[in-house]
Write a structure and sequence with these properties.
The complex is a heterodimer. By secondary structure, chain A is an alpha+beta fold. Chain B has 3 domains: 107 residues, Acyl-CoA dehydrogenase/oxidase, N-terminal domain (Butyryl-Coa Dehydrogenase, subunit A, domain 1, Orthogonal Bundle), CATH 1.10.540; 115 residues, Butyryl-CoA Dehydrogenase, subunit A, domain 2 (Beta Barrel); 148 residues, Up-down Bundle (Butyryl-CoA Dehydrogenase, subunit A, domain 3). Chain B is an alpha+beta fold. In chain B, the strands form 3 sheets. In chain B, strands 2-3-7-6 form a 4-stranded antiparallel sheet, with no helix packed on it. Chain B has a 3-stranded mixed sheet with strand order 1-4-5, covered by helices on one side. In chain B, strands 8-9 form a two-stranded antiparallel ribbon. The two termini of chain B are 35 Å apart. In chain B, strand 2 and strand 3 form a beta hairpin. Classes of the chains: A alpha+beta, B alpha+beta. Chains A and B meet through helix 6, strand 10, helix 7, helix 8 and helix 10 of A and helix 8, helix 9 and helix 11 of B.
């Protein structure tokens, strides 16, 4: 029978991530202003194993199931959204057994006519092209590329020297330092990147949005419970309270869609479309949450005395980094319909 | 760890009810809607198929509530929501017309004395004809505002006299008995609430009229009138001592507890209708053309279908979670309200979009999609309106931090 509780191990890891997030929360602004996570926090996260959440035990990680990884990611990001995202988003290469010195760059799907900000083409063992906007880890020694070959996407590994990166000025997620990537050189072709692999990436990305949703809902609720207007707490006005209820519903729905997709993926089912839908739902819910948070704070939501405006910028930037919702739907359709995609108007 | 595997028993129940809905309910659906009644032969078909509210766990006739025993697997609310979705996929009016205690069951089960449970549920053992229970809370002037009911109960020798009018009562005109909420004195607020079981045929109890509705027309929805209706002491649900022991606020709590267990069922009904509409739209679109191109080849159409599918699944998962929490005896009024509000709201949108997606190509509107478009609207209204659900959710949000904001 279906159930919705978490086991002890998953709960323990999520609590560890949450507690770390609470200690990191006070340095959110500092990280955004400096453009990087304070090194002491990064070291602490590394020591706690938080940078190895997605890595299999075989490759020196914690060997957690996707559900447990997402549970921990969302718990950390809910407490320290910017730092949590900066620490963990660039760790997606770990899903495929790579070390934390390897960055993942997705330039695939080009063979289906799907257009992104950039594309990496694989011809023989040579990769060439650029990706305009991506999130990478720090101090990288290699890159795991997803490049479009003639008969599908392929994972390729190239050394750092084959890749040229330059920072991109984005409106949010300053601590993650999004960048443009240019690649030209020979690569070690590792194997196909098909439905299951893309599903894993979608599932890894969605909990970052869940974390932002939780953070924004909690912040808006706490504000509404202490701010007065017209002689009353603003939380007593349905015009304030109902949108918060809406956020709670959409966020919960998004998390459950993700849980369902992650569970089915772990069972070996084809969960590609479910994962794409879950990621899209997570993005929509996160935007609703941070936008409602800004609105709940009124003018205070527009200025940087509160984190709401930063979260709004962050979520939209994060959305671009992981594929805008519309683009995601297009990718899903392209992926599902394959060559027939050319006939879709 | 969350787990989304249906047990083999659940799969069997789901498959069997889906088959029944497809072969016995759906073919009767449009005619029943036109007649505003269920075809009489349906009940014998139902009986032969062995389908009853025994399959709907919170049916108190079979659930060992109050005893502390764990419900058997087929009696969990989780199984009930699966069954509710499948039958409503066929036609929600038929689902609402299943013989049994209906919404009247949970209050009798939750606070009825052993003698009362035995007495009131005994009627459902009779297979000679369908028997129904009903739940009468809503009044013309008090719907979602449960605390504001005005139906009076006056203490008299040997019992109470009830006076007032109840409205929008499902199965009201054919119920063998009705759970009625009344107040000793409106000034007492929730503390004045009492809950009774009133049998059909009691002097002073009559059916006012059957409502003509936008949708769910085959489902019986009636107005009930109580005029100095005498109800004996033994029909006070839980007995007098129950209210003394619980400091008198139990009548209101019974109404609320009922909603916590019935809202997931109503949410599941909305999911069933929305799923039916989404499937129907997909089926109809497959064979249609626009501007010389098959409809499925338009990206906007595909995105619309994909979006419907996503929202149906999200609504189902919220419903499942609220049912799971109820089975685990964990607080779930927030989850129940979220499921009800989300499923109801999304289902309304999905039915509308299904109708518009398929009607846009100059074709005659599909009668089933039109029916579901009418049927679904009430799912944002009954068992607490969309606004009331948001009120519950928001209050629980503030409760989490102990904030009293006065909402």
């Amino acid at each position: 029978m279906f159930r919705f509780d978490w086991d002890e191990d998953s709960t323990a890891v999520a609590e560890l991530a949450r507690d770390f997030g609470r200690t990191a929360a006070s340095r959110e602004r500092e990280a955004a202003e400096s453009g990087e996570v304070p090194s002491a926090l990064r070291s602490q996260a590394k020591d706690l194993g938080l940078l190895d959440l997605a890595r299999s035990a075989e490759h020196g990680g914690l060997g957690l199931a996707p559900l447990a990884v997402g549970h921990a990611v969302a718990s950390l990001v809910a407490e320290a959204p910017g730092i949590g995202t900066a620490l963990l988003l660039g760790e997606a290469a770990a899903l495929f057994g790579e070390s934390d010195a390897t960055g993942l760059v997705d330039g695939g799907l080009g063979h289906l006519g799907y257009r992104r900000a950039g594309e990496l083409r694989l011809t023989g063992s040579r990769v060439k092209g650029s990706v305009g906007f991506t999130a990478l880890g720090r101090d990288l020694s290699a890159y795991l590329l997803i490049a479009a070959g003639d008969d599908g996407d392929r994972f390729c590994r190239v050394p750092a020297q084959a890749v040229e990166t330059s920072l991109v000025a984005a409106m949010g997620l300053e601590a993650i330092a999004p960048c443009r990537v240019k690649v030209a050189g020979d690569a070690e072709v590792l194997g196909p990147c098909a439905g299951p692999e893309r599903t894993a990436v979608f599932l890894y990305n969605a909990p970052f949005f869940h974390g932002y949703s939780r953070a924004a809902l909690a912040y808006a609720r706490d504000y509404a419970a202490q701010r007065k207007a017209f002689g009353r707490l603003i939380g007593s006005f349905q015009g304030i309270a109902f949108p918060l209820a809406e956020v709670a519903m959409e966020s919960e729905a998004a998390e459950l869609l993700w849980q369902d997709a992650a569970w089915r993926h772990a069972q070996g089912e084809d969960a590609f479309v479910l994962a794409a839908q879950a990621l899209r739902a997570a993005k929509d819910a996160a935007f609703l949450a941070v936008n409602t948070c800004v609105g709940t704070l009124g003018g205070h939501g527009f200025v940087d005395d509160h984190p709401a405006e930063r979260w709004l910028r962050d979520v939209e930037t994060l959305s671009a980094l992981t594929g805008h919702p519309k683009a995601l739907a297009q990718a899903a359709i392209a992926f599902e319909t394959g060559k027939e995609a050319e006939g879709i108007a | 760890m969350p787990d989304f595997q249906e047990s083999s028993k659940e799969q069997t129940i789901r498959a069997y009810l889906h088959y029944f809905a497809e072969t016995e309910i759906r073919p009767r659906s449009l005619e029943a809607d036109r007649m505003a009644d269920i075809q009489p032969d349906f009940y014998s078909v139902l009986d032969r198929a062995g389908i009853s509210t025994e399959m709907m766990p919170r049916d108190p006739g079979s659930r060992p509530a109050q005893t502390g025993d764990a419900p058997r697997e087929h009696q969990t609310l989780r199984t009930a929501v699966l069954a509710s979705e499948e039958l409503s996929w066929g036609d929600a009016s038929f689902m609402l017309s299943l013989p049994g205690p209906g919404l009247g069951g949970p209050p009798v089960s939750f606070i009825g004395t052993p003698e009362q449970r035995e007495r009131f549920f005994a009627v459902f053992q009779d297979r000679g004809r369908p028997h129904f229970g009903a739940y009468a809370l809503t009044e013309p002037e008090a719907g979602s505002d449960v605390a504001g009911i005005r139906t009076r109960c006056e203490e008299v020798e040997g019992g109470f006299r009830i006076t007032g009018t109840k409205t929008f009562i499902t199965n009201g005109s054919r119920a063998d008995w009705v759970v009625v909420f009344a107040t000793l004195d409106p000034e007492l607020g929730r503390a004045g609430h009492r809950t009774f079981v009133v049998e059909r045929g009691r002097e002073g109890f009559s059916v006012g009229r059957r409502h003509h509705k936008l949708g769910l027309r085959a489902s019986d929805t009636a107005e009930l009138v109580f005029q100095d209706c005498f109800v004996p002491e033994e029909n006070l649900l839980g007995g007098r001592r129950h209210y003394e022991r619980q400091q008198s606020k139990e009548g209101f709590k019974v109404a609320m507890a009922t909603f916590d267990s019935t809202r997931p069922l109503v949410a599941a009904m909305a999911v069933g209708i929305a799923r039916a509409a989404a499937e129907r739209a997909r089926e109809l679109i497959r064979d249609r053309y626009m501007l010389g191109r098959a409809l499925p080849r338009y990206r906007a159409i595909l995105e619309g279908l994909d979006d419907m599918d996503r929202r149906v699944r999200a609504a189902r998962l919220l419903t499942w979670k609220s049912a799971y929490l109820a089975d685990a005896r964990q607080p779930q009024s927030r989850a129940a309200s979220m499921a009800k509000a989300y499923a109801g709201g999304q289902a309304v949108q999905i039915c509308r979009e299904a109708l518009e997606l398929t009607a846009d190509s100059g074709e005659e509107p599909d009668p089933l999609l039109e029916k579901w478009f009418r049927d679904i609207r009430v799912f944002d209204l009954f068992e607490g309106t969309a606004q009331v659900q948001r009120l519950v959710v928001a209050r629980r949000l503030f409760d989490e931090i102990g904030a009293k904001v006065g909402l």
